[in-house]
Amino acid sequence: MPDSAPAVQPRSEVLLSRYRAVRAFTEKIQAQLTAEDCVVQSMPEASPVKWHLAHTTWFFETFLLEPRPEFRPFAPEFRVLFNSYYNTVGDQHPRPERGILTRPTRERVLSYRHHVDEKLADLIRNEAIAEPVLEVGIQHEQQHQELMLMDLKHLFSSNPLLPAYQPYVKSAPHPGAEVAPGLQWHESPGGLVEVGHHGGEFGFDNEFPVHQEFLRPFALANRLVTNREYLSFVEEGGYEQPDLWLSAGWDAVQESGWRAPLYWAQKDGEWFEFTLGGEHPLELDVPVCHLSYYEADAFARWSGYRLPREAEWEHMARHLPVQGNFVDQGHLHPRVGTESGDHPAQMFGDVWEWTGSPYVAYPGYRVPDGALGEYNGKFMSDQWVLRGGACVTSASHTRATYRNFFKAHERWMFSGLRLARDLDGHE
Amino acid sequence: MPDSAPAVQPRSEVLLSRYRAVRAFTEKIQAQLTAEDCVVQSMPEASPVKWHLAHTTWFFETFLLEPRPEFRPFAPEFRVLFNSYYNTVGDQHPRPERGILTRPTRERVLSYRHHVDEKLADLIRNEAIAEPVLEVGIQHEQQHQELMLMDLKHLFSSNPLLPAYQPYVKSAPHPGAEVAPGLQWHESPGGLVEVGHHGGEFGFDNEFPVHQEFLRPFALANRLVTNREYLSFVEEGGYEQPDLWLSAGWDAVQESGWRAPLYWAQKDGEWFEFTLGGEHPLELDVPVCHLSYYEADAFARWSGYRLPREAEWEHMARHLPVQGNFVDQGHLHPRVGTESGDHPAQMFGDVWEWTGSPYVAYPGYRVPDGALGEYNGKFMSDQWVLRGGACVTSASHTRATYRNFFKAHERWMFSGLRLARDLDGHE
Amino acid sequence: MPDSAPAVQPRSEVLLSRYRAVRAFTEKIQAQLTAEDCVVQSMPEASPVKWHLAHTTWFFETFLLEPRPEFRPFAPEFRVLFNSYYNTVGDQHPRPERGILTRPTRERVLSYRHHVDEKLADLIRNEAIAEPVLEVGIQHEQQHQELMLMDLKHLFSSNPLLPAYQPYVKSAPHPGAEVAPGLQWHESPGGLVEVGHHGGEFGFDNEFPVHQEFLRPFALANRLVTNREYLSFVEEGGYEQPDLWLSAGWDAVQESGWRAPLYWAQKDGEWFEFTLGGEHPLELDVPVCHLSYYEADAFARWSGYRLPREAEWEHMARHLPVQGNFVDQGHLHPRVGTESGDHPAQMFGDVWEWTGSPYVAYPGYRVPDGALGEYNGKFMSDQWVLRGGACVTSASHTRATYRNFFKAHERWMFSGLRLARDLDGHE
Amino acid sequence: MPDSAPAVQPRSEVLLSRYRAVRAFTEKIQAQLTAEDCVVQSMPEASPVKWHLAHTTWFFETFLLEPRPEFRPFAPEFRVLFNSYYNTVGDQHPRPERGILTRPTRERVLSYRHHVDEKLADLIRNEAIAEPVLEVGIQHEQQHQELMLMDLKHLFSSNPLLPAYQPYVKSAPHPGAEVAPGLQWHESPGGLVEVGHHGGEFGFDNEFPVHQEFLRPFALANRLVTNREYLSFVEEGGYEQPDLWLSAGWDAVQESGWRAPLYWAQKDGEWFEFTLGGEHPLELDVPVCHLSYYEADAFARWSGYRLPREAEWEHMARHLPVQGNFVDQGHLHPRVGTESGDHPAQMFGDVWEWTGSPYVAYPGYRVPDGALGEYNGKFMSDQWVLRGGACVTSASHTRATYRNFFKAHERWMFSGLRLARDLDGHE
């Protein structure tokens, strides 16, 4: 472009470039894997990497290409094979059997991706696209990027060879920051506060509408709970004391034989942690990760504190910059925290933070019309909210109002916790 | 009593009389059953009537007699046999095996009751009792009276002979009231409201502390949802439309083959309902009963409304008298509602009303010390709050702040629903 | 009876008297139990005593009364409730739910028994009965007498109070016989031998027809394996050595956590055995009882011997008198063996002896016509033959050709073993 | 080689050539598959193709290389990863998790194969090999070739795309032989016959020793049961009539929803069969395949006949040439039978024939010493014998005395049946 007035990039170019960047990042994640790594499913909750590659493409094809009159499916049978849970769209290949799909091959799935990418690029260039749906598709793809890394970690952890996805790098963010700061508290007087997304930028339906909640005075810890702290809980018998646990949590401990976070292993007295860089001695100053809600809750009780409510967390995070250890850094493991200054540190990135808030609709929430109404609303039971994003989340995917959610017993996501406490004299 | 100055009954007499009345009512419930009826367990969640007879006695023995120096157990092995879930007390006979305890016989369990009653009476008369614990024991026994009737209903419903516990009486509360009133709405502007128990009268730990919540303008229906309304949902395909259901609810429908509320059966095209008076044609104006949370939620969505939040319900009920169709009436089945006047009707009694609120601790909640800390706190996950009491609840056992809770898929309690809606232009 | 001409009892009187004696014995078994003991089912394989009382009556009603034109059912719904597995008759109440039938009460089931007994007595007296079916009914009732005691033992063993059905008596058959004889062998040259029932006396269909089998020279032990011998196997690590076990047996050991026979328990280093007389220190000279096929097989392998084949056992037992420790003695537990003389001892009574023969049809076997064809034939897969009868079997119910059968993992019947070996130089 | 005196190939060359041919055939099977096809496990009973590639190599490495002083493992962790069930060797990677082993890659497993092949070749050439163990290893590899094709067929059948392993060819053996011959009988007078392997050529331990069995006069059908015959059974309600089934078989029908053989599907009224050539209309004259024991037994009962005993089958097959439709033909599906002449046809190849004989030890059987004792003996319970080999079996791997065995409910092996009947006047 010749030197001239500042080039205002047309909207369609911005969109296309963003679409392509996100799509490319998905393919980058799988590029260093063998086709074999991409086809296997290690548990019903996880999906094969190849399935993610196809499903994210299916999403764009189904919601943006299929409504158009000239639409011809890439392969008609993909409509069922790669539908995750959209009853409005139709039948679905059973979730626990995603791992038997050795066909279509990864190569063919990549062709599927490129075919849809070309069609999409045409539509975007021609400004013939429903932009809000495109944006949901992009955000959806980012969620699946995180799922790919979670699912792959679970798969590799199940293999006795404990393969590494990438080389391991020690977790300090920079020299001199190898030790986690001491525990401190950031206080808030509470009161009637606003919760929820104001609009403008993208937000999922479950972040709306803005509404008011009344909070009592509270404080949040300056940083995430560390492996060192959690190890004390383990070594002081936290997993043997039923009075520390919710009843359902204690049942889970007994039935599943939990004795430590997922991916911890004790060998000859020493503790190791399996990471996307393979298994290594547990780094004590790194935030603890891969906890169930029950473990996070039991640890908080043992500490004499509690989990934050989601409104408390959001109120505290509302005006902080969305910066931290995200997937963009490529570290793929939580990092030692730094001093927090005026505000709590590590609010974004590193690990998703369990809150003590069940995942339910905000007052005034409305399920969107059509198939996308199935995106979030139907999951509003029997799950808990997590906040902040993790080291496998894209920085551009999260924000203070973002509500992630998992079941109380789940542990394969990058989940940790931050402590909270009441300020009015009793905890 | 000859005419004289009003006799002020001493506190100990009041207590003793209340204790004896509640204990006697428990025995009355089982008196019309055979010993065989009392020993069997029809599912892991339910317990045999005999076990309830013993466990409620164990509660008084363990928490009031055992701490005393002169204590001698009635039978040392009962300490484990009849402990429900108090890890602080010690081991427990496994819950799913409560039904294999043909020994001790019912007769011996009744002796156990009378033995403990005598010891308790002495303590109460001598004012040597921890009154708050006694009160918990009495409330606890009332909860188990309700459980006895729930569990018995489930047991009898599982028997192809469909035996009746008592004669069946049609459900209209009085002549001329055979038809449920039309649906109307009682509005509230919401705002910052108080929720929770103010103390004074008895309340469970989970009702404390009083705190503030901010509510948007809302309305509650004037009465409970009826069988007629729910039957429309059934007949218009409510159980076949996944978009009406939470995802976990739809899974439950598929896996459990639900097609109607528990205890409904269709025979030759006609609908019947099993009651404690046996199986009878479905009475259409009676409140619907024995719904899971998922069904209540799906029905509300199908109706275009929603479930109340527990704070909304409590705010509306706060100043209403605790009157309704309780176990004291002996009807043991919900009854047709009456006109509501200035306030919603049927807020107390008939059926427990599902709310859209997960069961979690109130802000500032503290778990009580000691074994009684296990009473409520450890169940604060994966359950939902129900309000108001049912036709198998004692009138003296419930109140506006009372929080009952069950899992989303459970149906054997007397659970129904009342509709709610937002008042700010969108539902 | 004064000395006189030998009174020839008419056939109908003989039959009636036998019918009544067997029916009375059934009621005697349950007479010392409470109604509560009789209603509960402790596992799907076992049935409540009350169910046995009713089902045996149903058998006579269905197969002898129902075919008659004047037949009126005692209670029409019993046709399904108390049908065990006769698809030819029609539907069946599900087996695992036999224990929820608190109604009909035991009292009513006893009325049912007496009602059918009167009808049957009339038919027998009037010689209007199908005698072979009557005989099957009587034999069937004797089988259920044994099942009642097996099932009751399992029920009582599941109760932490470990109740006793009757007083405990030490197991030596008479003073001076407290010690089991040493292991000796009774040899047979084998060859072409006859196997199966010759007719005349009653035999079940599965004992027919007589046919020839070729046996190699073999020997059977002079007595049953004792607790002392089995305890050596336990203490020398028999349950920890996979090479001693069939693959499916080793799986069962791992999954079920078997470490000793059913009903053995080790407390403070001492071994106890639960019996119908309650729990008592293990008597070492008594035959071991309540073994699975897998355990019997592993013990035999560990001993350097093997289990007998059923043809070997029958060949050796063919001409022995059917005498031993049967239910008629009332001991209800195996007894110390005595010297064997010319023939192996304890071939009848004490415990059923596992053979190494799967339960399949004899060559030329024909399934009987009609519903009684379901009695034995359809179970001829996935089970193993046991021989000889046990201390809970009627002496008049067993014989050398009798084929009992159970699944390889089952242990609640009174099952033990006798060792066998080849005589041709290699085991 | 120049023309000269007949070259006597040295024994080591014969062995090496045989070893190499069998090993090469294994690799040929997988050569037309993607790496993705080779890693996935479609059910716990099946294994991934890659696992078979490795395990067969592990077998040679463990039993032939490891005992040698100079042994260095190719990869020490393979010792556990690729051990199937040899407790004597040590721990095993859990069978249901064989499918999560994306590493080692197929490429590395092929390197493992070639590494071991070189070592083996050296040993064979130097005549430093335990030839009987080498022979077991070769036979073992042939068994796994068959398993690879069975497991692959199951995997592909589970994929909604129904991929084909190779092109489909209609099943007639040659033009003019498209129709199965009519049912005829080949008779035998029975009597005292020899059963078992005489030694000389290779045989598995379970084929020994030769012993005598006494057979009644019997007849075997001239050919295998066809799809046409089995379809009549299906269409005439065979799967709805409990009286045709063993009790355990009827349970399996109910629980598994069987309505036809595995791999049959009815679409718009037409029947299809899934084959290694994809899904095609059912060829009615082809032998029925993929039956459980229960189905084979029910079909035989419905036909008025029965399954052969294994001694009958072996007696009839003893002097027949081992010729038929084997894997060597490459058809990989049973073929229409031809006229039988003096002897029954299709005794070898096409499908394994269920016998009515449970799989137990022959009289005088001895378990081999050492780890290879685990090869067959520990599976001698709860399985049934099949005879004759199938279209996925190597011709050089089977013989008249060969005893294959599967559980009664299993269906993914190539299993069918031949009818038998008694000759003594009844059946």
Can you walk me through this structure?
Four copies of one chain form a homotetramer. In chain A, strands 10-9-8-11 form a four-stranded mixed β-sheet. In chain A, strands 1-4-12 form a three-stranded antiparallel β-sheet, covered by helices on one side. Chain A has a three-stranded antiparallel β-sheet with strand order 5-6-7, with no helix packed on it. In chain A, strand 5 and strand 6 form a beta hairpin. The first copy, chain A, has ten helices and twelve strands. Chain A has 427 residues and is an alpha+beta fold. Helices cover 31% and strands 12% of the residues of chain A. Chain A is globular and about 65 Å long. The model of chain A has no long low-confidence stretch (mean pLDDT 95). The N and C termini of chain A lie far apart (63 Å). The longest helix of chain A has 28 residues, at 131-158. Chains A and B meet through strand 3, helix 8, helix 9 and strand 8 of A and strand 3, helix 8, helix 9 and strand 8 of B.
What features would you highlight for this structure?
alpha+beta, globular, 4-stranded mixed β-sheet, 10 helices, 12 strands, 12% strand, 427 residues, homotetramer, 3-stranded antiparallel β-sheet
- The string of secondary-structure elements of chain A, in order, is HHHHHHEEEEHHEEEHHEEEEE
Show unreliable segments of chain A.
none
- What's the helix count of chain A? 10
The best one-word shape of chain A is globular
Q: Work out the radius of gyration of chain A.
A: 22 Å
So what's the oligomer here?
homotetramer
In percent, how much strand structure appears in the residues of chain A?
A: 5-15%
- Estimated helix fraction of chain A: 25-40%
- The strand line-up of the biggest sheet of chain A is 10-9-8-11
- Report the mean per-residue pLDDT of chain A as an integer: 95
Largest sheet features of chain A:
4 strands, mixed
End-to-end separation of chain A: 63 Å
Q: How many beta-strand runs of chain A?
A: 12
Structural class by secondary-structure content of chain A? alpha+beta
Chain pair with largest interface: A-B, 42 and 42 residues
